[in-house]
From TrEMBL:
It is found in: Cell membrane; Membrane. The chain crosses the membrane at residues 29-56, 93-114, 135-155, 222-246, 284-307. This is Putative aldouronate transport system permease protein. It comes from Caldicoprobacter faecalis. It is a multi-pass membrane protein. Keywords: Membrane, Transmembrane, Transmembrane helix, Transport. Its main location: membrane. It comes from the Bacteria. One of its GO terms (biological process) is transmembrane transport.
Amino acid sequence: MNVKPSIVNSRAYNKRIVTIWHYILKKRYLYLMCIPGMIYLIVFKYIPMYGIIIAFQDFNFKRGILGSSFNNFANFKQLFGSEIFYNVLSNSLILSTLRLIITFPIPIILALLLNEIKKQVFKRTCQTFMYLPHFISWVVLGGILTNFLSMEGLINTLIEKLGGQKINFLGSAEWFRTVIIGGNIWKEAGWGTIIYLAGLSSINPEYYEVATVDGANRYQKLWYITLPGLANTIVVMLILSVGGLMNNGFEQIYLFQNGLNISVSEVFETYTYRIGIVGGRYSYSAAVGLFKSVVAAVLLFSTNYLANKIRGGSLY
């Protein structure tokens, strides 16, 4: 008896649906735990994407999004014709690239060092002190850094006592990026070790035992076992970091920005705040934000593609 292909495909499809539902019911508590996160993403990430429309409008508060008139790409023409925009783009790319190059390896190094500590009490204590700054807001950390780096602060006092000249860290364009990157390392480096420590814990201990029997020293174990075992985690984190290359963070930049370092401190976050919230140019600031998001998406997909081609491993 011949069965039509369409009927066979329909039965296979229905069987697959039933299998999926059985799996969801089996893991129902895990999916229930995902619901708050999904609601957050929908409400605060996906629904606001409707507002992207104003990047192509002359937005008016009285008329609203639906009532405002479209001006096609006038905001983008103004954007790409502005010299300030290219200065902002340059500042954002330079700062974010330096941040990526300098800060990305540090959590890996810290995780490797922590992994070598055998005394668990000392290891947990070090982890706690490294994690702690992550839970402190930038407003508080900014005040602490300001006290340390001011002309009469601890750092300049030490420099003066050692016979050097005081440095205006907070009012100097040359030192602005150093202060931002240093503060970011202090706040986030310890927290970034969590994922790498989890990756290290997944490496089979038998590999190290076999390497010890074969006469491998600590550095050889690190090079041939530990780093290859962390390779996939490093690739995924690198892809995510490159995808966020255009994001420099508003709070930290805004806290340390002033008239003396504005030439290097004006990035997309502070620029859109100044022209959008303060200046009331909502359509223009939406165009700037959309441009930044498109560039970030291109960087994310490009890095993922290259990682897949070079290593055979990628984010998706």
